[in-house]
């Protein structure tokens, strides 16, 4: 709160005329940012409407680096958080998905509904020294042959991943799977 007050060139106590505490300030900042998530165009199939809304959240939140931590740390959902989630669920219900499938779909989407995802564990740094690097790679190849195969043989081996493409790939897998389950008449009893 002190830092915010400094940026606004006011005393910290002046902030408390507008917000009760830091938590309320973060909630209000988050809701203001999330207000920019555009609704998808009318008439889209449910799957495309959900995809469009999620990609809009990703585009918007990419310019608010703090928002990811704010979303994950809020003790309660804010009104705009609920609005976004309600929009996703409304699109699924409009597509005829059952309440049970919508429930499971929202869990499967998890943080992806906000346009981000948790990445796999970071890999160990390879040494800069060429000999030490070669030795480390040889040890990794023996201990973790599948990881080394993927890292050296994939079409983009040695290049940085395209995070937007990776995100869209996983989102499409999830949505295609949810759509397939819906078409098959999925129910909780069928899942057992």
Structural classification:
mainly alpha
Shape: flat
Span between termini: 50 Å
The proportion of strand residues reads under 5%
Estimate percent helicity.
55-70%
* Counted beta strands: 0
Unreliable runs: none
- Write down the Rg: 22 Å
What labels describe this entry?
mainly alpha; single chain; 61% helix; 10 helices; 192 residues
Walkthrough of the structure:
61% of the residues lie in helices and 0% in strands. It is an all-alpha fold and 192 residues long. It is flat. 14% of the residues are buried.
Describe, in short, the structure shown.
This protein is an all-alpha fold.
How is the secondary structure organized here?
Elements (H helix, E strand, L loop, with lengths): L1 H7 L3 H4 L6 H13 L11 H16 L5 H7 L5 H16 L4 H11 L20 H14 L1 H9 L9 H21 L9
């Amino acid at each position: 709160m002190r830092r915010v007050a400094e940026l606004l060139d006011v005393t910290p106590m002046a902030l408390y005329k507008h917000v009760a505490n830091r938590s309320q300030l973060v909630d209000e900042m988050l809701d203001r940012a999330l207000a920019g998530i555009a609704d998808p165009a009318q008439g889209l199939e449910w799957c495309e409407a959900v995809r469009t809304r999620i990609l809009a959240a990703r585009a918007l939140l990419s310019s608010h680096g703090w928002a990811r931590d704010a979303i994950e740390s809020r003790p309660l959902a804010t009104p705009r958080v609920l609005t976004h989630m309600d929009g996703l669920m409304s699109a699924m219900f409009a597509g005829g998905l059952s309440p049970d499938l919508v429930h499971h779909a929202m869990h499967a989407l998890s943080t992806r509904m906000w346009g981000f995802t948790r990445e796999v564990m970071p890999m160990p740094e390879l040494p800069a020294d060429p000999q030490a690097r070669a030795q480390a790679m040889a040890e990794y190849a023996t201990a973790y042959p599948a990881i080394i195969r993927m890292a050296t043989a994939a079409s983009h081996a040695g290049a940085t991943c395209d995070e937007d493409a990776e995100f869209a790939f996983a989102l499409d897998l999830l949505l295609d799977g949810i759509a397939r389950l819906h078409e098959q008449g999925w129910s909780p009893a069928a899942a057992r």
